[in-house]
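[audit] Reproducing an earlier prediction to check determinism. Same input, same settings, fresh worker. If the tokens differ from the archived copy the diff job will pick it up downstream; this log only records the rerun itself.
[audit] input (329 residues):
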Amino acid sequence: MPVALIVDSPWIPGYAGVNHLDYYLDPEIWYRANLRVAQDFPEVIPVPSWWLEYGMAIEPSALGARLHFQPDQPPGQSPTLARLEDVQHFSPVNPYTDGLMSWALRRYQTQKDRIFEAGFTLPMATARGPLCLASFLRGVTQFMMDLVEDAAGSHRLLEFATDTVIAWLQAQAEVIGPTVESIFVLDDIPGMLSRRLYLEFAHPYLKRICEAFPPEWVKVYHNDANVRPFLADLAGTGFDVLNWSHNLDVRDARAALGEKMCLMGNVAPLDLGVRGAPDQVKAAAREVLRKSGGKGLILSVGGGVSPGMPAANIRALVQAARSFGAERP
């Protein structure tokens, strides 16, 4: 039974004992921190693997958002698109020149051979999803209002955001090279929508992202908000794997999806991953495995690894998967 975890800068700097700003800005500190994670947890699949990200700041930086950096946490951002109609004047994003995208691509370019020589790979291109990008520009509350009050304007914004996501993923794949064979898209905002709004404003854009890449590539989608209203529709986007919230039981997720998607989850990331004891994590993980029947599941937490999750709890997930596998006929 495989174990995979979304590991990124909310968690890695704290685990490695380094300053967030140093992690972002110093290539050597970034490399050493990621190497430590890979070496400390060799039985865990890191998703997306050696991720070059600045919290959630890369995509909004290319869209003109104001960023706010802190030494002890990932950066935040403030919305800057005051008028929805102004999106029609936006120029297409160029990932090779715009915002922190250019920095990230340069880091991949200069570090990839070192990563490969150390025995690791870079299999995924990763991006925040189109509704997430739209909410960066407008603010979540205003964007939710836009969907109801100005459907046409919202679609123009989402078209622009989707084009940006695809361009960003393609640029990463080009710079990293042929080891890339999958995409990873994170977008929780659809989890705030009804099924009707999801089908109009999220589904077609998520589907267009998947269709922009080779059919044999693995497509992974993260949404740990409320996916229940449209869960049965998600497979139609083209995504193969869903990382979802611990608040939705694995049996209910499987019942809605059938065999159309692989599930990646769903031990509680905070109450157990961070605050629980290893025995509690192991017991919860075994319960997830039992309910899944051991099929179509990648054991993980219901979301990303949260700040403060100790190594012992990660190893408890591995132990649960190992013991479950050993007990199966």
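[audit] rerun output stored. Observation attached for the diff report: The chain has a mean pLDDT of 96.
[audit] end
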